[in-house]
Specification:
By secondary structure, the chain is an alpha/beta fold. The chain is 34% helix and 16% strand. It has one domain. This is F-box/LRR-repeat protein.
Amino acid sequence: MLFASALVSFIPNLKLLSVRCTVLSKPALVIILEGLKKLKVHNISHCIITEDPPPAPMKILTKLDESILEKASRLDKFLTWFMCQHTRNDEGS
């Protein structure tokens, strides 16, 4: 979540963000979607999205809930190809 907060604080005018193939917590995703007001394109393809940030046990989401999709609806593009089997099997490493 520190990464997401830093983006919002130090690069608030960011228009395109790709975090593909990373582990991202749902709260961090919310910070990005709510905080980067000028964001137009967000790529979370092949990401592992977790329910809570570390050090909480990793509970991997298998789909995005409506609250995230609603926040992302303002974007021109929200790329979300959800984790491929390889990513899921090795948890992104």
